[in-house]
Amino acid sequence: MRFGYDFSTRRALITGASSGLGAHFALLLARQGIAGLALAARRRDRLDETAAACRAAGAGAVVTLSLDVTEDGDITKAIADTAEQLGGLDLLINNAGVADSARALDTDASSFDRVMDTNLRGPWLMAVGAAKAMIAGGTGGDIVNIASILGLRVKTGVAPYAVSKAGVIQMTRALATEWARHDIRVNALAPGYIETDINRAFFATEAGQAMIKGIPARRIGQAGDLDAPFLLLCSGASAYLTGAVLTVDGGHHINSL
Ligand SMILES: NC(=O)c1ccc[n+]([C@@H]2O[C@H](COP(=O)([O-])OP(=O)(O)OC[C@H]3O[C@@H](n4cnc5c(N)ncnc54)[C@H](OP(=O)(O)O)[C@@H]3O)[C@@H](O)[C@H]2O)c1
Known about the structure:
Structural class: alpha/beta
Bound molecules: NADP nicotinamide-adenine-dinucleotide phosphate
Largest sheet: 7 strands, parallel
CATH superfamily: NAD(P)-binding Rossmann-like Domain
Strand content: 15-25%
Shape: globular
Mean pLDDT: 96
CATH architecture: 3-Layer(aba) Sandwich
CATH topology: Rossmann fold
Low-confidence stretches: none
Radius of gyration: 18 Å
Distance between the termini: 41 Å
CATH class: Alpha Beta
Number of helices: 8
Number of strands: 7
């Protein structure tokens, strides 16, 4: 049996595509020969680099869009521009996110708001806007929210981030129940610790190495570890899968207490 990992007609909008996992997911979809890619973030120069790599890797149309997910007007415009420039939208990757490292007692209102606005309010507005575009286009579609195992378990020093990602997980379930009737699936990918530019130096330290010992797989993840689970959530192969939270973490979140 062949599975339906066919992206040749799909048009995707990826937030936070300027670096890290977002850029990785863009390239991965490009390698599948996706018909259209809208790459959105604040750093246009980095988006242009990702766009060039995606074109070379086999994507059809590739456009870049300025997007700050804390700005409502940017969100409306990014969704409208994607639908117009790619001829529709049937896949949203809600990937943009930020983390602040501080104990709760040292967290002020503005840093709490920044994390919530970027990680939860922005993805909510993106999802609602994208769902309206999918319904208007009559195509249905898929929304993949990039959560984290910190939405399922807590760790000291990153409370607002953990709260925001728990919100993303519950948002995934709530929207999935409302939009299944429109043939829109909403699922979450919840990675454990994945090596990217922001955490590479930390994992080389003694504290980082100690944390790795708490992962049953005894290693941190690489972006490529997310590829197959990510493509499953993005593709027609998972047509009856919605409201799911797929953890990819080497067993970290279910480790023995
Ligand atoms: N790496 C991990 O271990 C890990 C584990 C679990 C979950 N995650 C999640 O995976 C996602 C990507 O993280 P990453 O590790 O790839 O980090 P990253 O390299 O720092 O990427 C974060 C992306 O989000 C974008 N972004 C931040 N604030 C934004 C805003 N206000 N508006 C629009 N875009 C914004 C950034 O683009 P600009 O600065 O150009 O706007 C950047 O492209 C995040 O949601 C993160 O929580 C990561």
